[in-house]
Amino acid sequence: MLDTRTAPYAALILRLVTGALFLTHGLIKLLVFTPAGTAGYFASLGLPGWLGYLTMAVEILGGIALILGLWTRIVAVIEVFPLLGAILFVHAANGFGFTNPGGGWEYPALWMMAMIVLALLGDGAYALRPTPAPRRAVAA
């Protein structure tokens, strides 16, 4: 049974924490690795370099959106894709454990599942712009 009194605050906490993590990861790509370095890394994986710029933007803008509560469900679904890419192209070959050399896929998979849970759970408390509800068909 869902506790409707505390669930909005659980979603808020999940939104704030994952938003801060995405923002931090994106800013590391921007400020530490630099945009050109990030694009070069993506290219070294056999991916198009422009995907590094896109990933950086999705992490930064998505992190800010999650923190503020802007279209949380949509942003959470979008954030699944960089995490899936990290699993498939960076961490899968390193095994399960994130403590393995090179980091396994455990951590990005957990983070990806947290995004799916947030998408299902909803915006939570104090969202500035809740995700629009889908329109329901009206029976004639």
Question: Can you walk me through this structure?
Answer:
The protein contains five helices and no strands. It is mainly α and about 140 residues long. It has one domain (about 5-120). α3 runs antiparallel to α4 (about 70-90) and α4 (about 70-90) runs antiparallel to α5. The protein is globular and about 55 Å long. It starts with 6 loop residues before the first helix and ends in a 19-residue tail after the last helix. The mean pLDDT is about 95.
Mean pLDDT: 94
Biggest β-sheet, characterized?
A: none
* Tally of alpha and pi helices: 5
Rg (CA only): 17 Å
Strand segment count: 0
Q: Which keywords apply here?
A:
5 helices, 140 residues, mainly alpha, 65% helix
Overview in brief:
By secondary structure, the chain is mainly alpha-helical. Helix content is 65%, strand content 0%.
Present the secondary structure layout:
Blueprint: H1 7-32, H2 35-44, H3 50-68, H4 72-91, H5 106-121
Helix pairs in contact: 1-3, 1-5, 2-3, 3-4, 4-5
